[in-house]
Design goal:
The chain has helices spanning 2-26, 33-37, 41-85, 89-94, 97-139, 141-149, 151-188, 190-195, 199-250, 256-298, 358-365, 388-393, 409-414, 422-431, 435-438, 458-472, 488-502, 537-543, 546-555, 561-565, and strands at 319-327, 333-342, 347-352, 373-378, 381-382, 395-399, 476-480, 506-510, 522-527, 530-535. The protein has 569 residues and is α/β, with parallel strands linked by helices. The radius of gyration is 37 Å and the shape is elongated.
Length: 569
């Protein structure tokens, strides 16, 4: 189709030349009008055919371009999404969701834009210009040389503008990323905004943002005011070319047909040159936008599966931390030569001050982070020797903040296991003390929960989360402060569901209320140097150490600094 478009552009001027010369040669001759047209009729019908086929191929090219654009957009988005799914959690700690979405959307749009501009405008125009200048070169070489020389100021001024533009474009992109990030946070925290009556404040911030963007756009326009001088220079130079061609025609060196031929070929050179300004600008702008997308795609996950990694199959559920040393990036050492063994089916609870590594233990077990030294074993297998996906499929987690999507109750439950029947889903909800309130919802299990499950209370969200974990049916459980934010009534129902869930599973509990972990087989008290003491609830009370003191304080009315330090208030 590109070849045909070029052929149409290059052949049409020759047909016009032949027809024009025929008309001029017959002017004043006593020839019948119909007969005089016979020599040019084949050319005219050929021209009509070119235009008809050109219109059809143009439509085909447009449809093909749109189809390719959709396919390319889908491919790039899926590719980026799959890449982000494989990224490490640290990446999302440093990059906000709104910023990532802004970069992804802008990058995909700009890459698609580059492809569209190159295939539909840049390449056809450049090829047409090259062919046209070559034809002119064979007809009148001096005109071709002069036309080529007119491009020098165009290239110099364009290069200056585009370099300046790149710097401003990067500033704008960064501003948009930050604003999208905040905008996303505002929309997802609307109760906070309204609770503090900050609607006007957020509106003013958005206005300030667009005022800054407008100021930068003014700088853009000033640059293009200067750049427009090249168009004026180019217009004057091209006017000189036309003047020269007219002089040659009046001098008798060119026929009227050749005049029209050169006129059209000069236009075929001139038009792409004028259009290239905007195409270069569009392509350069697209490249700037695509840069952030490509940086996202270049980011490498810090934790990857080994080439010879296998799928983890948990038979017993034994967990062992063996000489584990770990520190977060640019922070003090959390563990040094840490050792802990959890027996199959054992429930182990962790208590400790903030920062001693309670949640870190859970993160290490699920390979959200890898230790700098030592091993973490499940049934004797180093978790670094197994595929991350298979590892996490064997572990279920119920966190303090339940992550629910704005889908239906059923959709959220099936996120744990898509292949289960509705009967098993209802049974899991009954076991999690969730069926009772779900059946009272407007559409029962087909009720949409709103963003992050906003239509449910904290206790209800926890129970749905527990039901989802029951459906996943993992051999290993992690309960990270699962009831610390609940009222007494909700906590009682969630606790009942949790202990049903724990049965016959290896379980790690991180809690802020000692009352929630008294049933644990073993309680581990963590300190700055690792394990301070461990044992059952009764054994630790008899030991009269830190745990016994904490229990005494929390079960009474006295509130001391020690409770605050251990996050037990």
């Amino acid at each position: 189709m590109l070849i045909f478009t070029l052929a149409q552009k290059q052949i049409s001027p020759w047909i016009y030349k032949i027809v024009t010369d025929s008309i001029v040669s017959n002017v004043g001759e006593n020839i019948d009008g119909i007969n005089s047209m016979k020599p040019v009729l084949p050319w005219l019908f050929g021209l009509l055919g070119l235009y008809i086929v050109g219109a059809v191929t143009s439509r085909i090219r447009e449809r093909s371009s749109n189809w390719l654009e959709i396919k390319m957009r889908a491919h790039l988005t899926r590719q980026a999404f799959a890449h982000l799914m494989n990224m490490h959690v640290n990446f999302f700690d440093e990059e906000t969701s709104g910023s990532v979405m802004s970069k992804l959307d802008r990058g995909v749009s700009r890459i698609v834009g580059i492809s569209y501009s190159l295939s539909n405008h840049f390449l056809p125009n450049v090829l047409s210009g090259i062919i046209s200048i070559t034809v002119i070169l064979f007809i009148r070489w001096e005109i071709a040389v002069f036309l080529l020389s007119t491009m020098i100021p165009y290239i110099v001024i364009n290069s200056w503008v585009l370099n300046k533009h790149k710097k401003l474009e990067k500033v704008i992109n960064k501003m948009y990323d930050e604003q999208y990030s905040h905008f996303y946070e505002v929309l997802s925290s609307m109760r906070l905004v309204k609770g503090f009556s900050k609607e006007d404040y957020e509106n003013d911030k958005l206005k300030e943002f667009f005022d800054e963007i407008s100021n930068i756009e003014v700088k853009f326009q000033r640059m293009w005011d200067i750049a427009s001088s090249k168009d004026i220079i180019l217009t004057i130079l091209n006017w000189c070319v036309y003047l020269y061609v007219i002089w040659l025609t009046f001098s008798g060196e060119l026929t009227i047909g050749m005049f029209f031929l050169l006129y059209q070929y000069i236009s075929l050179v001139q038009t792409p040159v004028f259009q290239l300004t905007w195409m270069f600008f569009d392509i350069k702008r697209s490249m700037n936008g695509a840069e952030d997308y490509l940086k996202l795609m270049d980011a490498k996950p810090t934790i990857v599966d080994r080439e010879d990694s296998t799928n983890l199959i948990v038979e017993k559920g034994e967990i062992e931390f063996k000489n584990v040393t770990f520190r977060y990036k640019e922070s003090k050492e959390i563990f040094k030569n840490f050792n802990l063994k959890i027996n199959p089916g054992e429930t182990v609870a962790f208590v400790g001050k903030s920062g001693v590594g309670k949640t870190t233990i859970a993160n290490l077990l699920t390979r959200m982070h890898d230790p700098q030294k030592g091993q973490i074993l499940i049934d004797g297998t180093d978790i670094r020797d197994v595929k991350q996906k298979s590892l996490r499929q064997q572990i279920g987690a119920v966190m303090q903040e339940s992550y629910l999507y704005g889908l239906t109750v059923k959709d959220n439950l099936y996120y744990g296991n898509e292949d289960l029947s509705e009967e098993k889903m209802i049974a899991a909800c009954k076991a999690a003390n969730a069926h009772e309130f779900i059946k009272d919802l407007p559409k029962r299990y087909d009720t949409k929960l709103g963003e992050r499950g906003v239509k449910l209370s904290g206790g209800q969200k926890q129970r749905v989360s527990i039901a989802r974990t029951i459906l996943k049916n993992p051999p290993i459980l992690i309960l990270d402060e699962a009831t610390s934010a609940l009222d007494s009534e909700s906590e009682a129902k969630v606790q009942e569901a949790i202990w049903r869930l724990i049965a016959d599973r290896t379980t790690m509990i991180i809690a802020h209320r000692l009352s929630t972990i008294q049933k644990a087989d073993r309680i581990v008290v963590l300190g700055a140097k690792g394990i301070m003491e461990q044992g059952s609830h009764e054994e630790l009370l008899k030991h009269k150490g830190t745990y016994a003191r904490l229990h005494e304080l929390q079960s009474g009315k006295t509130k001391e600094k020690l409770l605050e330090e251990y996050e037990l208030l």
